[in-house]
Every structure is written in structure tokens, then in C-alpha cells.
């Protein structure tokens, strides 16, 4: 069963006689599925992983609230729960999914850049996990067409022919029972390497889904002589070093998919039993990275765009303390900071006191402006029903230093309007 919900949505247990319908903001799960998800939430809490779902009570009834994470959760009963961005004007789940994929493609050290929207058939029957898995399978197919990486490894075993170095002590024991064999140590050129073991391990994990068994089993034929990884997290580190150091360019893309599927927080296991798969991303980081990439494209021709700049400190004497890190600096050709931007995936409301903006966000960007001597400050928030148009505020009576509260509109992708603020 598949469910789709937006971030900050509510998840309820479904009563036997319940007639409630699922919506983008709330879903109703069978009691057994609700308890599986609750167990996952409690395990995240125990492991001190980012809290994706919070447990709450309303009028004595238990419910769960999704936090500001997006992605997909799969439970042991094969239930999939997609969590999509909550964007305004309210997008359909298909539009929200397309937007999320475009945003994910800008994340560093993740494989989503290989997702070409023109090649993806995204509709109401398309689900994120299937999209990700099928892209991984395509990368495995490409790799098999090029040929699996082989390497020399040192082996010791009894053979009917003499090859390599005889291990005398073992050979004497061997000949007591099998005198026709030689116990030797030799170099073997094999495909049973760490990268190939990791690929097989991911395929093996994913093959539990009945719909994927035929294509995955076809791929696994090429991995018959390859072992499963016994220490996947350690092997991931070794594979990354191998890719950086040697001639493993053909494995670069597939490594990112392996890393995604085998990351420590993805698979949820205890007592050796499979429980679920969670591929989740903090929406603040996703939005921040996406907006930064878009701004870089807009400004790069005439300006220098610097993301996450770290040269300034709040305290400079007697020692430097409290490092500052604005999201984006825009510098002109004379190296002067002409615009400073901070990006927030938060809902603000112009009818509320202080527009509902977090005071810390305001103090922070004011300090940035002072330290970087910038008179043009921008806070970017996503548009919502209570915040539709930009607001220009002045930080000094002489109006030399201004702060623009910028409303990002996903349908228009109106970031080019930032050029008008300069």
C-alpha cells in the first residue's frame, strides 16, 4: 500500500469502522501499520537519529506528526509512505514530486543528478522509491555492459595442480588425506572485490520486493561468484578510497547509489530482522542547496557567488570565536559584497507580529550585514497563502541598509527578481 503526505502532515491510526479519506495533509493507517511506523519513530529517537516523526496525543488518542523531512519510508509490511514538500499554491502530489526530484538533483554527494526528468514518467502511479531503485538497476546494467572490475587477491587453498607458493605445513597435513592435492598460496584474478560485493548486497536487500525480483534476479546471475558484504559500512569507506585512488571511474555513479541505500540511517534492523527502509532528507538543506544553485546560475556571469562563506567571526579578539556562515554572498568585480542572502524553509505570516519571523533569523542577518559591510540583505522564504509578495524593510533611518523579505514562488521560480534588488 502506498501513501503520500506532505511535511508537517498528520498520521492517524485507522479505526475498524473508520470512513475518513486520506489527503495530502493527513493519512489514516491500519492499526498494524501505524504500530510499525511508531516502532520506527521510537527507534530513531533511541538511536538519536534526526527525529522525522513525533508521537503526540490529541483528545487522548495517539497520532504522529511528520517533521520537515522529505523522502520515503518503507515498512516491513511493504507499506510505503512518501513525504513531499508542502508548497503553495498547493501543488498536486505529482507536481510536488517533480519539484522534489529537481531539488534533490542539486544535493552534493548524492546520485540524483542522474535523474533526467524528461526520461521519468511521473504520475499518480509513480513512487519515489521505485524511481530511485529503477535508476540504480539501470546503473548496474550499464556497469555489466562495461564489465565488472576484477582484482588480484591472495588466496590459500588445496589444488590438483602446483601454482604459486606451497605452504609446507598445510601441504603435509593435506597430503595425509588427499595426497593428490597441493596446498598453495597464489594470486587469483577475481571479480569478488569490495565494490562488487556492495552492489550484490544492495541487490540482495532490494530483491525482497516481489515486483522487483525478476529484473534483480537477472542481474544477480552476473554476481554468482561474488560474496555478500559482511561489513557494508567499512566496505563503503574502502570503496570510496578505491574510487579516488585508482581507475574506478566506471563505479563513481553507482557508488553514490550504494552509499544512499546502505547508509547507516537508511536500513532499520534489529536482531537481524528486516524492518524497513527510510530515505529521508531535511527539507531546509534541500531547499537551501536548490536555491543556492539557482542563484549561482542567475548571477555567475557578472558576479561572484560564494556559498557557505566562513571567513568572519563574531568575536575577533583575543581569539576568534563564533564563526559566521551566511548562505550566500554576492560579490562584484571589486570583491565588494553587494548582496548577502540567507535561505529559510519556514512558513511566515505577514499578518502576525513581526511577520512570524524568528527573531534569531533577524539578528543573525543583521550581524552578517555588519560584519561583511553589506547594505543589501535578503531573507528568502517560500511563498504561502499568508505571505505572497516581497517586503522591503530598512535597518537604518537614512535607509542606506535594507532587508528584503523575499517570497520564492515555485511556479514562476522568480529568483531572477533578485537582480532588481541590487
From TrEMBL:
Origin: domain of life: Bacteria
Cited InterPro entries: McrC
A Pfam family of this chain: McrBC
Descriptive protein name: 5-methylcytosine-specific restriction enzyme subunit McrC
Taxonomy of the source species: Bacteria, Pseudomonadati, Bacteroidota, Cytophagia, Cytophagales
Amino acid at each position: 500500500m502506498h501513501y503520500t503526505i506532505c511535511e508537517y502532515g498528520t498520521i492517524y491510526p485507522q479505526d475498524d469502522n473508520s470512513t475518513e479519506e486520506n489527503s495530502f495533509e493527513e493519512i489514516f493507517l491500519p492499526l498494524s501499520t501505524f504500530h510499525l511506523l511508531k516502532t520506527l519513530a521510537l527507534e530513531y529517537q533511541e538511536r538519536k537519529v534526526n527525529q522525522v516523526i513525533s508521537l503526540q496525543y490529541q483528545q487522548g488518542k495517539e497520532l504522529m506528526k511528520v517533521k520537515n523531512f522529505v523522502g520515503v519510508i518503507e515498512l516491513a509490511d511493504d507499506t510505503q509512505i512518501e513525504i513531499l514538500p508542502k508548497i503553495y499554491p498547493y501543488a498536486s502530489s505529482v507536481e510536488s514530486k517533480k519539484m522534489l526530484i529537481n531539488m534533490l538533483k542539486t544535493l552534493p554527494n548524492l546520485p540524483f543528478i542522474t535523474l533526467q526528468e524528461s526520461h521519468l514518467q511521473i504520475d499518480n502511479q509513480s513512487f519515489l522509491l521505485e524511481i530511485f531503485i529503477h535508476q540504480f538497476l539501470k546503473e548496474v546494467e550499464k556497469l555489466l555492459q562495461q564489465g565488472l572490475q576484477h582484482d588480484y587477491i591472495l588466496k590459500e587453498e588445496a589444488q590438483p595442480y602446483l601454482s604459486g607458493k606451497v605452504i609446507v605445513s598445510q601441504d603435509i597435513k593435506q597430503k595425509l588425506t588427499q595426497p593428490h592435492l597441493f596446498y598453495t598460496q597464489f594470486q587469483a584474478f577475481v571479480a569478488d572485490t569490495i565494490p562488487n560485493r556492495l552492489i550484490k548486497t544492495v541487490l540482495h536487500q532490494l530483491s525482497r520486493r516481489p515486483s522487483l525480483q525478476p529484473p534483480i534476479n537477472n542481474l544477480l546471475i552476473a554476481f554468482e561468484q561474488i560474496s555478500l558484504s559482511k561489513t557494508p559500512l567499512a566496505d563503503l569507506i574502502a570503496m570510496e578510497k578505491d574510487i579516488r585512488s585508482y581507475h574506478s571511474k566506471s563505479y563513481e555513479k553507482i557508488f553514490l547509489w550504494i552509499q544512499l541505500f546502505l547508509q547507516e540511517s537508511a536500513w532499520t534492523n534489529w536482531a537481524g530482522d528486516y524492518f524497513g527502509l527510510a530515505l529521508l532528507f531535511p527539507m531546509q538543506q534541500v531547499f537551501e542547496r536548490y536555491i543556492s544553485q539557482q542563484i549561482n546560475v542567475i548571477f555567475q556571469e557578472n558576479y561572484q557567488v560564494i556559498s557557505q562563506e566562513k571567513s568572519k567571526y563574531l568575536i575577533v579578539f583575543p581569539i576568534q570565536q563564533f564563526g559566521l556562515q551566511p548562505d550566500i554572498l554576492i560579490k562584484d568585480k571589486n570583491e565588494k559584497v553587494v548582496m548577502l542572502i540567507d535561505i529559510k524553509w519556514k512558513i511566515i505570516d505577514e499578518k502576525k507580529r513581526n511577520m512570524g519571523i524568528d527573531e534569531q533569523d533577524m539578528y543573525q542577518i543583521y550581524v552578517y550585514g555588519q560584519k561583511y559591510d553589506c547594505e543589501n540583505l535578503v531573507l528568502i522564504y517560500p511563498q504561502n497563502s499568508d505571505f505572497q509578495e516581497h517586503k522591503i524593510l530598512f535597518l537604518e533611518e537614512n535607509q542606506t541598509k535594507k532587508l528584503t523579505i523575499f517570497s520564492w514562488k515555485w511556479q514562476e521560480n522568480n529568483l531572477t527578481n533578485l537582480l532588481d534588488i541590487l
